[in-house]
Design brief:
It contains no helices and 19 strands. The chain is mainly β. The chain has a single domain, classed as Porin (Beta Barrel), CATH 2.40.160. It has strands at 2-7, 12-18, 20-29, 32-41, 44-55, 58-68, 95-106, 109-122, 126-129, 133-136, 140-153, 156-169, 173-174, 177-178, 184-195, 201-215, 225-232, 234-235, 240-242. The strands form 3 sheets. It has a 13-stranded antiparallel β-sheet, with no helix packed on it. It is globular and about 60 Å long.
Length: 246
Amino acid sequence: MFKTAYSINERFTIEGLFSAVRQQRAISQGVFEDFTETTGLGDGVLMLHYEYFSKSAVQMAFGAGPKIPTGSSDLSNDNGITLNADLQPGSGAWDGILHHRITKTLISRPSMVFTNLITYRITGANNEYLGSQKYEFGNEYSIILGASDQLVFLKQLMGYGLNFRYRNASQDKNNDQIVSNTGGEWIFIIPSVSWQASSSMSIIFNGEFPLYSRVTGTQLTPSYRLNVGVYLSFNSKKNQLFNLNQ
């Protein structure tokens, strides 16, 4: 994933998220094994953020924008059979995304920040799913609560944090009919560490581990996820280009 943001002024920020996706799936049944792999450009996201409140170490911002179907949604396997939606790099549909962020800096310790993020995705429909069908992923929302801090370790500026994420996804629809074995809710714990390599670059590592999951029917559910990210900032006299850690 590549994410970039541009500060128009102290209130408004434009943010873009772009991705390249590679997925692998292996299903084993006795001596039989089915292996499928897909690679391609993922869907993109454009967001406009407005910081409408900033006072007493508290900032509040609202964002909105589209998810753009730039990724392929019609890839097929070696036998020429179009793959299901969960293996496609893109969704083939336009979505709307709403986002709200609250950050609170601890006055007695300015390096410590408490964060609350709420994101809601309103999904559109792919009207060319499997050639002639209509497929729509379920709407979903997530809530993140967490805290982060910084300290000097071996003369290096290090950061650490702990987040909890709640995610709820509605069931998918195929030709306006509910798709069984889709949808559910999850709670994850997300510890993280970061290294401020320079004044303009930081590297962050985090892990995402499930504390609770309740899925509809029988389906795959996340076990864990490991992430690494590199954040760069570029400053000019009037404007600032930077990455936002979400």
